[in-house]
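Incident review: delayed structure delivery

Summary: a single-chain prediction request sat in the queue longer than the usual turnaround. Root cause was a stuck worker, restarted by the on-call engineer. No data loss occurred. The affected request and its eventual output are reproduced below so the record is complete for anyone auditing the incident later.

Affected input:
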Amino acid sequence: MALAGALIGVAAVLPWETVFGVGLNGFDVGTAGALSLSLGLIVGVSGLLQIRGRGIGPGTRAVALLGGLAAIGLAILGYVQIHKQTLDYGLVSTGSGVFVVAIGGGLAIAAALFGRGRSA
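Output delivered after worker restart:
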């Protein structure tokens, strides 16, 4: 889960879209960078706390699940907005940041659903 948080957070500084060959990171395209970084910190810190403990408790599962869903929603929203700009203006393409935040969100959801639970 810490890896998922790291991917979501790092996606903020990766290019989310390319306009006329110039990459724009998550902070350049609006609030996507701040949201991605915040979600990455929340999921990552809860993942680090889980590593230190004996497994994933119900609270950590909830944080991972909600953080993962929010990250995937952010990726879908970013992709749709960039695709609309491509249709309207052309010469705009989706960057790697959108896909990395989606992968991180998927990993967070997988950790929430399939992670080892607390041992008694």
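Verification: The longest strand covers residues 15-19.
Action items: add queue-age alerting; document worker restart procedure.
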